Structures are given as structure tokens and as C-alpha cells.
Amino acid sequence: MTITLLIIAVTCVVSFMAFSDRKLLDRLILWPPAITRGKEWWRLASCGLIHADVMHLAFNMITLFFFGRAMEGFYVARGGEVGYLVFYVGALVVSSLPSYLQHKNDSHYRSLGASGAVSAVLFAFILLAPWSKIIVLVLPMPAILYAVLYVVYSIYMDRQRSDNINHSAHLWGAAYGVFATILIEPGVVSHFLRQLGQPSLGFG
User: Fold this and answer.
1) How many angstroms separate the Cα of 101 from the Cα of each of 41, 42, 140, 170, 187?
2) 136 forms bridges with which residues in the sheet?
3) Residue 32: which residues within 8 A CB-CB, separation 6 or more?
4) Mapping DSSP to helix (H, G, I), strand (E, B) and coil, where does residue 2 land?
5) Cβ atoms of residues 69 and 4 within 8 Å
6) What is the SS3 assignment for 30?
7) Three-state secondary structure call for residue 11
């Protein structure tokens, strides 16, 4: 889990620096006009290094710690440590791209956080172990049930646009995690279907 810990460490350091450095925050945040006009494409990924506050950072990094360990092992076994890093950075870019395209000329739009990439890691894990137990607040539930509720909630909230959370990034990150994992190992589809038929194997 070396790469997972490295990602967490770098994200925490940069996030804490940006909490007190507005210039750094402005340089890394996803601000679509900077990409459209200035070709600052790194913002599609660098926005994942900064967070709104300590709770935002903690939630993402704790989730990444628990599920990233399993997915790092999966990806390192098939593409080495670089392969896992490419998967994670790719998730940041793919989850940020729809927001950029939708708001590319909107000078008021900004987005930050690693949630898109964390969603990719989480949903890739659910693809491998759909009946694993996940604790949501204090409620235990099968991972596959959480995935369904998460997608439904994210779609609903994305349409409502009643908060400042980028639900679109969550959805695109989740989709990326599933399809990227299938692409690198097509056999996970049959594995997933077999697991669905054996709920007692993973939950309890």
C-alpha cells in the first residue's frame, strides 16, 4: 500500500498548505476559464490535492486508506506501482472533465477535492467484493447496496444542485473506477456476477 500512503501524504500536505495559502489554492483549483483561456490542463488533476476543510480532507483520505489498499494490490499486480498511480490520476481527470466542459466559460465555478478519484477506488473495490460490509456513518450495509444508494442519491442531488458538492464528479469517478478495472481485467465481470449470487460469502 506504498502508493496509497504516498497519495494520502502528498494530498494532506498540499491541502494543509492551501488552507492558509490562497494563491496556492487558486493555482490548483478546478477553475474552467483557466483551462479554456490559459490551457492550464493540470487543474483537472491538481484539484484533487486540495480540499474545502479538514473534514472534507479526512473523509476522502480515510476512505482512500481503507479501500485503496485492496485496489493498489490489484493494480500493482497487473501494471506495477505506476499502473495504480495512473489509475488514480486518471480518475481525477475523468471525474473533473465533465464539470470543465459544462462550465468552461463560467468564471464563478470552482471545484476541488479528491472525491472523484476516491469514488473510483471505492467502486472498483465494490466490483471485486460486492458483499463486503461497509459502515455508513454507524450503519453497516453490503457494499453493493451502498453503491446503488450512492448512485441514486448522487444523480438526484446533481439534478437538484442545491448544495456546493460536485456530485457529477462522484458519478463519473465511480463509472471510471468500474470501467477501468474491467478494461484491465475483463474477468472481474464474471467474478462480480458470481459474487452477486453468493451474498453470504462477503457480508457478515
Assistant:
1) 12, 15, 37, 16, 33
2) 139
3) 99, 100, 103, 104, 105, 106, 109
4) helix
5) yes
6) strand
7) helix
- How far is it, in rounded angstroms, from Cα 165 to Cα 74? 30
pTM beyond 0.70 = yes
Query: If you search the block for the grid coordinates 468500474, which residue do you land on?
Result: 178
Helix (H) or strand (E) holding 142: strand 139-142
Cα–Cα distance measured from residue 100 to residue 85, given in angstroms and rounded to the nearest whole number: 22
Grid cell for residue 193: 456476477
Distance (Å, whole) CA 114 – CA 7: 10
Q: What is the pLDDT of residues 76-120, one digit of tens each?
A: 999 999 999 999 999 999 999 999 999 999 999 999 999 999 999
Cell numbers for 41: 490542463
Expressed in percent and rounded to 5, the helix, strand and coil fractions of the chain are 75, 5, 20
CA 168, CA 84: separation in Å to the nearest integer?
23
